[in-house]
Design brief:
Elements (H helix, E strand, L loop, with lengths): L4 H28 L1 H5 L11 H29 L6 H22 L5 H19 L3
């Protein structure tokens, strides 16, 4: 079976999720040190700093919608709805919105970051709508 464009967008989104895990963890380790990272992390942990906090929040934000996006792409494929404008454009809007969102959040860019999130959300909704039309 060939990878559909929607599955390719989902695969790249999963790669983005792995990147976000690594970037957030690296920022946190840079703050607290390798000894903390390798240790059991028992006891009180200080609040994350500015960059690590932003990266952790961006990761959590992605993980709020990623399961819905993945399920929608898989359901669209199973239902034979992929390859249509709604799923093709929607999957790519989601991916590119999420790609743009991450550095904007990391750099603390207001408004444009929200616009990138909105683009991704609209893409997610488009894939969901495709299931019903």
């Amino acid at each position: 079976m060939d990878m559909t464009p929607e599955f390719i967008a989902l695969a790249f989104t999963l790669v983005l999720a792995i990147v976000q895990i690594g970037w957030a963890a690296s920022a946190r380790t840079a703050e607290l040190g390798l000894k903390w990272n390798a240790g059991p992390r028992d006891g009180e942990v200080p609040a994350p700093g500015r960059l690590a906090g932003r990266l952790i929040r961006a990761q959590a934000n992605l993980f709020e919608t990623l399961p819905i996006f993945a399920a929608a792409v898989i359901m669209a494929h199973i239902a034979g709805k992929d390859g249509q404008t709604l799923t093709l454009v929607g999957a790519h809007l989601y991916l590119f919105g999420r790609l743009i969102y991450l550095p904007l959040y990391a750099f603390g860019t207001p408004y444009v970051r929200t616009l990138a999130w909105l683009v991704a959300f609209v893409g997610l909704v488009m894939v969901l709508v495709a299931l019903f039309v």
